């Protein structure tokens, strides 16, 4: 591909811009924040629950969770400043076809507003179908706003967006590559990597899936057979998204509005973006919308969850280039008896990132971390499930670019039933993966070692 899904083609430009000022990730101390309060804050449509009410709700929801789930939730709130939100329905969506089907159905049912935020919006069959649907809804009187990243869409003709604009859709290109087109501060190194659609302020979709025909074909997830040689060329991308209904949709809508406003590209059209929301389910979630000017919320939540894990850490990561703190936390967990397993790409759309991540394999494998390479698809998912109860799904990769430079969006779901769904998905990916043994890794080709060494030199910027 001439343009990868992670937008890494512009590495030389980023290197020249960023070499003088390398930001660092914060130290995340384990255990210290839990003493600040006894019960995490829980928000509802009727306001924040009192401490006793919150404790009773969490005790009911986490009756079968690990003993320290409440302590982790308290630490996470202290680290991120973001409360839990109760009363949500969360549906797990696997791969592009299932996700696009749900998103298109929700958009078709839109009555008042559609807000779409995406890193990639391609002019291909999937992108054109989606654009025509948005145009049709605008003709029906629905307010449609689209926020797209100017690097992620660098290969999409401007005429594609002009066509939507002429139909009455409001569009903003996030952080234009050309500084002359920037309406606010020019921050070309900071990209909007989020994937979010909010319909009528009542239903939201987020995760790792862009608007692109790369996702037109499903992976072999859930299939009881392996692809034959002829099919391997047609195998799709393996990704994960979620559909959310309930009070948490307001937090997701707010993240869209906030990112739109920071572009200083004009006001959003007047509409009822925040209708009253009744509880839609029993899931408790935390919405983390991180940006380069804030407090590394997604990074802190992941490190804390790894540090506090008691039984299992199961991570699926498309672009895995961890910093030393994450590597140390994973190894420490494995050494205290936690089952630590990583599903990483066996096939990738970006070799530089893959080799940079593999430079950490020696340390991880020596520390007892188990690594698996997915074989039957291009892996693009960014998910984790820890102790069967703490789950995260979103746009953030485990690399410095996501944690330091990008605008990212992850949802944490604290629920054993949803955690079981995540575990089932993880086990499906394991079935289609090959384990990387320590002995095998020791005997890898010398050329691969050189690629890992060279790629690791660029890890901060990729």
Your description of this structure?
The chain has 462 residues and is of the alpha/beta class. The chain folds into 2 domains: 28-82 and 285-456, Endonuclease, Chain A, CATH 3.30.870; 90-262, Endonuclease Chain A (Endonuclease, Chain A, 2-Layer Sandwich). It contains 16 helices and 19 strands. The chain has a 17-stranded mixed sheet that branches. A two-stranded parallel ribbon has the order 9-15. β1 and β2 form a beta hairpin.
> First CA to last CA: what distance?
17 Å
Helix content: 25-40%
Q: What's the mean pLDDT score?
A: 88
Number of domains: 2
Name of the level-1 CATH class of the largest domain = Alpha Beta
Q: Give a short account of the largest sheet.
A: 17 strands, mixed
Spans of at least 5 consecutive residues with low confidence: 1-5, 7-20, 31-35
Principal-axis shape: globular
Helix and strand composition category: alpha/beta
Say what the CATH topology of the largest domain is: Endonuclease, Chain A
Oligomer: single chain
Question: Helical stretch count?
Answer: 16
The second-level CATH architecture of the largest domain is 2-Layer Sandwich
The number of distinct β-strands equals 19
* Percent of sequence in beta strands: 15-25%
**CATH homology superfamily name of the largest domain:** Endonuclease Chain A
Radius of gyration: 21 Å
Offer a concise description of the structure.
With 462 residues, this protein is α/β, with parallel strands linked by helices.
